[in-house]
From TrEMBL:
Key words of the record: Isomerase
Protein name: isochorismate synthase
Keyword field contains Flavoprotein: no
InterPro entries given in the database record: ADC_synthase, Chorismate_C, IsoChor_synthase
Keyword Isomerase attributed: yes
Enzyme class: isomerase
An example Gene Ontology molecular-function term: isochorismate synthase activity
Organism: Sinomonas humi
Source lineage: Bacteria, Bacillati, Actinomycetota, Actinomycetes, Micrococcales
Family, as annotated: Belongs to the isochorismate synthase family.
EC numbers: 5.4.4.2
């Protein structure tokens, strides 16, 4: 059976200051837009041509099989042929194979993208209709138009405790440390949630725009109710090159302010505890990536990633992918092999995963799961859904944040770290803390 998918990509020309799109975030004016933006570039998706949902341990492989079938024999007109043009889907996956959250691929009707200073748009149809350039240009204008300013003034904002209150969550951290001291595992990542309510309504598009302007070095994602700005890249595939950004080791900027130059380097790069935690995270990624790679390199020295809320100890890993049985591994095949990394689960993975379920008492849903996009040519980017939350209805957002726990971890310090990690979302929602 041939695919019903048709795609038409149109070049919209170079982006210019004051032009139609000088920054992709300026086109983010619709509450339901699908979003993947960093430093003004990326993709926005509007409308819905198709959707696939699944749950369980095979969620990545099932999504991969669906996408492959869906794009097979697609009728594609794409003069640009670079990563992201032609057929494209946004994806969000549950952290856990036992989660209630439906992992999903969403194929928008219209994609607007910017890459290397050039804008384009794609129209996708799955119902036999032939996309037309005239219709596509008109749809882009409609979907990206600026509406009248409106919405909440943030006067009704409340932050409520989530599944575990602060005391009980610190108890869970202390318990995690005991399991580590007993030699059952080396590292464990424990997360918690808080609920932000705004009776005036939460304007999703404004949250995304604020994240995109404040966190320019992060990947700002929006897939259905899931929104956030992650600094951590699980895997980015472009042709045969794969890249990842591993983070582990965190310092609240508020603790570093006024401490003088070099403080973050001393506290993060100079601390054996932080270096150890970071090393575990890199090894978990490189061990999983190695079987797919011809060449793999990670810098020996991690660098300090400076974000508006925190500093992280960071390492970029780059791999030249190997051809396996004549095929380069796809982004979702790699996600399947890499998720969950020690950065969001722990080591050993199985012991940490079981303890997370027991101690957090939380369904993480899409938090700490892969989020991103893929195209029909084997390119894609999947970040780890951190520094984000899930909108619940129109007036609430559940935010999630976690910390890597090792032998020397202190519950109070970890609690403070979760507040620093909630900050991007709290600020985007208008909460002052
Ligand atoms: C788990 C989170 O962040 C992860 C944990 C880190 C740490 O413990 O130092 C740093 C970055 C992320 O890998 C989160 O933001 O929720």
């Amino acid at each position: 059976m041939s695919s019903p998918l048709r795609a038409l990509t149109v070049d919209l020309g170079p982006v210019e200051a004051g032009g139609t799109f000088d920054d992709l975030a300026s086109a983010l004016n619709r509450a339901e837009a699908l979003c993947w933006v960093r430093r003004g570039e990326g993709h926005l998706g509007f409308g819905e041509a198709a959707r696939f949902t699944t749950r369980g341990p095979d969620r990545f492989i099932e999504a991969e099989a669906w996408w492959k079938q869906f794009t097979l024999d697609a009728d594609v007109e794409d003069p640009l042929q670079h990563p992201g043009t032609g057929p494209l889907a946004f994806g969000s996956f549950a952290f856990s194979k036992t989660s209630e959250y439906a992992s999903r691929l969403v194929v928008p009707e219209i994609v607007v993208g910017i890459r290397a200073g050039r804008a384009w748009a794609t129209q996708l149809t799955a119902d036999g209709r032939r996309p037309s350039e005239r219709e596509l240009r008109a749809a882009v204008g409609r979907w990206t138009a600026k509406p009248e300013p409106a919405a909440s003034n943030g006067a009704h904002l409340r932050v409520r405790p989530g599944r575990l209150g602060e005391q009980r969550w610190m108890g869970a951290v202390a318990s995690g440390v005991r399991h580590i001291r007993a030699g059952e595992l080396e590292k464990l990542v424990l997360a918690r949630d808080v609920l932000v309510e705004d009776d005036g309504g939460i304007p999703r598009e404004r949250v995304l725009r604020r994240l995109a302007s404040a966190y320019r070095d992060c990947w700002v994602y929006g897939v259905d109710g899931l929104v956030g700005a992650t600094p951590e890249m699980l895997i980015q595939v472009e042709g045969r090159t794969a890249q990842a950004r591993v983070l582990a080791g965190t310092l609240d900027r508020r603790d570093a302010d006024g401490a003088g130059p070099g403080y973050a380097e001393r506290v993060l790069a100079g601390s054996p505890k932080q270096r150890h935690e970071h090393q575990i995270a890199i090894e978990s990624l490189t061990t999983a990536l190695e079987p797919f790679s011809e060449a793999l390199n990670a810098h020996d020295e991690p660098f300090i990633l400076e974000l508006p809320n925190v500093f992280h100890l960071a390492s970029d890993v780059k791999a030249e992918l190997a051809e396996i049985e004549g095929h380069v591994p796809t982004p979702l095949a790699l996600v399947n092999a890499l998720h969950p990394t020690a950065a969001v689960c722990g080591t050993p993975t199985k012991v940490a995963g079981d303890l997370i379920l027991e101690l957090e008492e939380l369904d993480r849903g899409p938090y700490a799961g892969p989020v991103g996009w893929l195209d029909g040519a084997g390119n894609g980017e999947f970040g780890i859904a951190l520094r984000g939350g899930v909108l619940e209805g129109t007036t609430a957002a559940r935010l999630y944040a976690g910390c890597g726990i090792v032998e020397g971890s202190l519950p109070e310090a970890e609690l403070a770290e979760t507040w620093a990690k909630f900050r991007p979302m709290l600020e985007a929602l208008g909460v002052e803390r």
